[in-house]
Write a structure and sequence with these properties.
alpha/beta, Rossmann fold, Immunoglobulin-like, six-stranded mixed beta sheet, about 25% strand, elongated, transmembrane helix, transmembrane, Aerotolerance_reg_N, Class_I_gatase-like
């Protein structure tokens, strides 16, 4: 009985007060006295006629007054129902609050109070102003744990939710801000369930999980199915899941996706290579995305070197379209190298930042870092197949050595042997193999490991190469480091008279295999400007006319390598076959041209003209390249001269009905135009491989020596070296991701020194930060040994910047001597996942609930949902219907009381019945000798 009321004693007092109207009624009845007088009999008879009606009305009035007092008792006693435990949780409740502290939660805005805040700040308010106070009102015990998405293992527990613990929560949360690390909601949900089960033990505990997040579309699109599985497991286990959207503008109940703030993100700052020479111009690529619908103009980015804007430069993107990205390239040179006193000075930190931050969105993605190691000279290991000819022009390394050490500079030419290929290759920026006959199996495996980990390997072939060994050991049926299988023999010796004709032919001796190749990183700098835009004129290719390649290894365009997407054919030679080999397929193709169809009538003049020319050329004995040039004119896909004839031909080939014919024409043109491959590139693991099928010296070609054709040799070799050296350049190493390296246990000490190099230019200020920029000691780490290898696992990169590591190599001096310790340095930059976190688009309500079945979605503006956390049932006083019933009873009671009132007005006496009027006006004598009785 007591459980049915929140204030039971107030109700019982009300029940007792129900007797008050009854007592008053009885007292009023005692006012009537029976007095015998002359008209008494007549009055008694009249009263008997009215008695039933009067008694009924009086009892009804009494009932209404008692009911009114009873209802007031219910109101004051706060009646909760006849089954007070229905709908109430009687068990202890355990809450786990998961804070999404990913970078996107730093989306800032100006609140209603005019102060700047962010989504993470709103999440704090939801906990301390809504969830915790509601749980504190519950009658049963309430426990609460707080975990951050970036570090879900670090849990803060509050054993009892009350006013004191709420203040502790505020203090605890003051130490947190959005983290640069992007966490996993799936893992956090699993850990939350594990924590809840640990708290419950064997007892019955109600379990509730609250997720305070911004519910970005990128997160739910990528992990929707995994989240669905995790939430389904929770709801199946009867865990209540509340999802609270704290992003601004605050979510409403609309079916459309809520609005989001615009944002600019620096998604990439990438050097062409991680190790560069002092004073060498190193190319960087800055990639920026506009995550908003508005096109932006003249977006500027200052570039700082070691925190100093003066040593960097400022780059500008003229136009940044909405919901799109743009890249810009720039060059930097470095003058600081490591010294004996300051060995870590070999690393330079390059920082790009948005000059004018946007009014809303994220701040953390407006900065990006890169780390570059600067050396006096870059060591390049060179294995020469003919070391005796090293100083001769016919030698394979003669021109390359002078190019890299003198013309380009900054490189250390390190002659080596096949035995060196079995040693540690990591100190070398790349390895060059010049006309090497064969590679032992042990060396081949070490080369594969070196390239797979990010090294660069370049091959120049020659007459001493043994194709069988290459195919078996290096190509390995497409699984090895070598990109293509070699034929059994090199190309045949060309007679002198034929050689003379080919040398002085006006056609290019080196051809770009496909226009799309211009974007390949091995040649992109040749064909594109600093902004990555194609150059109008291919200045370099005009020198290809003066290059002569006598012999080479003729790789066939058949086999498994053609399907390998990691292999690219960059350059090839022209087809030098006789015209007679292609006359029949050419005539067959020309006969298929639909010249007589009416719908192609406007293209007929151009097609007729080219058909006549191609037929005549195919039946001649002219050089094959002349036929290839006519096919280029026919397809109109190689040049952009802008003439009306070219435009009409492009329009003709755009017709869907001739798509198959166009493909056939393209294949025939390629057969006629392109000869055997010259230059291959292959991506292998994290590293890169190049193969040039002729010699680097004068044995088979004059490319490097004879002007003016040799003008094209240095640029291509320079880009080849940059391509090989840039294999280790990580485009986007993200904070929170582990860095894994392995070392030979017998050659390295297990202890690693760790340092952090970084600053926040938006928070600390550029000049102040630059003055104080120095590596911060992160303490030493001991590597674990497994299977003869030391395993280095670094997972402590929790803020953007450069992380530097010093490994100690044990290098034996001589037999019987102590091992010398040689430091080996590694640097890596870690940045925010701006590509994902910078996209502030938000998920629709339906999409969220579909991925989280059984969960409830709330917003900051909806605080009513926390009533369920109070763990109490609403009493009748909270509903308006009880007040309505009380009002109706009061109205009816008052009306009936007026009708039966004994204080009628004087004019009512005149209109009353005769007996009543007489009773009211006649003076009644008092009979003193009789005892009055109640009427």
């Amino acid at each position: 009985m007591f459980e049915s009321f929140l204030n039971p004693w107030s109700f019982f007092a009300g029940v007792a007060l129900v007797s008050v109207p009854i007592i008053i009624h009885l007292i009023n009845r005692m006012r009537f006295k029976r007095v015998r007088w002359a008209a008494m009999e007549f009055i008694i008879k009249a009263q008997k006629k009215m008695k039933r009606k009067l008694i009924f009305q009086q009892l009804l009035l009494l009932f209404l007054r008692c009911l009114m007092v009873f209802l007031i008792g219910l109101l004051v006693g706060r009646f909760v129902g006849f089954n007070p435990l229905d709908g109430r949780e009687t068990r202890t409740t355990s809450h786990v609050v998961i804070f999404d502290d990913s970078p996107s939660m730093g989306d800032f805005f100006r609140g209603d109070d005019g102060q700047l805040t962010d989504a993470f700040g709103e999440a704090k308010k939801v906990l301390v102003d809504q969830i915790a106070p509601a749980a504190a009102q519950a009658a049963t015990a309430q426990t609460l744990e707080v975990m951050m998405l970036s570090t879900p293992q670090a849990v803060k527990s509050f054993e009892r939710v009350n006013n004191t613990s709420i203040e502790e929560m505020k203090t605890h949360l003051n130490g947190f801000a959005p983290s640069p690390v992007r966490g996993s909601l799936v893992e956090a949900l699993k850990l939350a369930k594990k924590s809840l089960d640990t708290q419950a033990g064997n007892g019955e505990v109600s379990q509730v999980i609250h997720v305070l997040s911004d519910f970005r579309a990128t997160d739910w699109e990528a992990d929707g199915e995994k989240i669905k599985t995790a939430v389904t497991d929770l709801t199946t286990a009867k865990v209540k899941v509340h999802l609270v959207d704290v992003a601004h503008p605050f979510r409403k109940d609309e079916k459309q996706a809520p609005l989001h703030h615009d944002n600019i993100s620096i998604v990439e700052l990438k050097p062409a290579k991680l190790v560069t020479a002092r004073y060498e111009a190193l190319e960087f690529t800055l990639r920026v995305r506009n995550n908003g619908p508005t096109e932006l103009k003249d977006v500027r980015f200052p570039i700082a070197v070691n925190g100093d804007d003066g040593k960097g430069q400022s780059v500008q993107i003229p136009t940044l379209p909405g919901n799109d990205e743009r890249s810009i390239k720039f060059l930097l040179t470095f003058d600081r190298v490591g010294t004996a006193d300051k060995p870590l000075d070999r690393f330079s930190l390059v920082t790009a930042r948005l000059e004018s931050p946007e009014p809303g969105g994220l701040v953390i993605d407006n900065v990006r870092h890169a780390v570059v190691e600067v050396r006096d000279r870059l060591p390049m290991l060179v294995i020469d197949g003919r070391p005796a000819d090293r100083e001769k022009k016919e030698g394979d390394g003669f021109y390359l050595q002078r190019l890299f050490t003198d013309a380009i500079g900054g490189f250390k030419w390190v002659p080596g042997s096949l035995k060196d290929l079995e040693g540690d290759l990591r100190p070398y920026t790349c390895v060059l193999m010049l006309n090497v006959p064969a590679v032992p199996e042990a060396a081949a495996k070490n080369l594969e490991s070196y390239v797979r980990d990010g090294g660069g390997l370049g091959f120049f072939l020659g007459p001493d190469v043994k194709p069988g060994d290459y195919n078996k050991t290096l190509y390995a049926d497409g699984n090895g480091v070598f990109p293509v299988p070699l034929p059994e023999q090199p190309s045949a010796v060309v007679p002198e008279e034929v050689k003379l004709v080919r040398r002085f032919s006006p056609t290019k001796k080196i051809l770009l295999r496909d226009p799309a190749v211009k974007g390949h990183p091995a040649v992109a700098a040749i064909y594109n400007d600093d902004r990555g835009q194609p150059l109008k004129n291919d200045e370099l290719e005009r020198f290809f006319r003066f290059v002569y390649i006598d012999r080479y290894w003729p790789v066939k365009r058949i086999g498994k390598w053609r399907e390998d997407r990691s292999v690219s054919e960059l350059f090839c030679m022209p087809n030098e076959s006789p015209m007679g080999e292609y006359d029949k397929p050419t005539i067959d193709f020309l006969n298929k041209l639909p010249l007589d169809e009416p719908k192609y009538a406007k293209y007929k003049p151009q097609l007729d003209d080219l058909k006549v020319k191609i037929r005549a050329k195919a039946l001649s004995s002219d050089p094959l390249y002349e036929l290839a040039m006519l096919f280029d004119q026919l397809l109109a896909d190689q040049r952009a001269e802008g003439g009306p004839a070219e435009a009409q031909l492009r329009e003709f080939w755009a017709q869907p009905e001739v798509a198959d014919l166009k493909a056939e024409a393209g294949r025939l043109r390629d057969l006629v135009k392109f000869g055997d491959p010259l230059y291959f590139a292959k991506a292998f693991g994290k590293g890169r491989v190049t193969v040039i099928t002729t010699t680097a010296g004068e044995t088979w070609t004059d490319w490097a020596s004879a002007p003016p054709g040799n003008t094209s040799f240095p640029p291509i070799m320079t880009e080849l070296e940059r391509y090989l050296s840039g294999g280790t350049a990580e485009a986007n190493r993200l904070v929170g991701e582990p860095l894994s390296l392995k070392f030979d246990e017998t050659r390295y000490k297990p202890v690693v020194a760790r340092w952090f190099l970084g600053f926040d230019p938006l928070k600390d200020g550029v000049q102040r930060a630059a003055a104080a920029l120095a590596p911060a000691d992160l303490k030493e780490q001991t590597m674990s040994a497994t299977g003869g290898q030391l395993d280095f696992q670094f997972a402590d990169a929790t803020k953007p910047g450069g992380y530097l590591f010093t490994f100690t190599q044990l290098k034996s001096q001589s037999a019987g001597s102590d091992a010398a310790e040689v430091p080996e340095y590694v640097g890596a930059a870690f940045n925010v996942d701006a590509a994902t976190e910078g996209d502030l688009r938000r998920s629709k309500r339906d999409e969220i609930l579909k991925s989280a079945p059984g969960a409830e979605l709330h917003s900051v503006g909806d605080a009513d949902w926390t009533d369920v956390l109070k763990n109490k049932k609403s009493d009748w006083s909270e509903g308006g219907w009880l007040f309505l019933v009380l009002l109706l009873v009061l109205i009816v009671e008052h009306a009936l009381a007026v009708k039966l009132s004994y204080n009628s007005s004087s004019h009512a006496d005149h209109s009353a019945p005769t007996v009543a009027a007489m009773f009211n006006r006649t003076a009644v004598p008092t009979a003193k000798d009789e005892t009055p009785t109640a009427a």
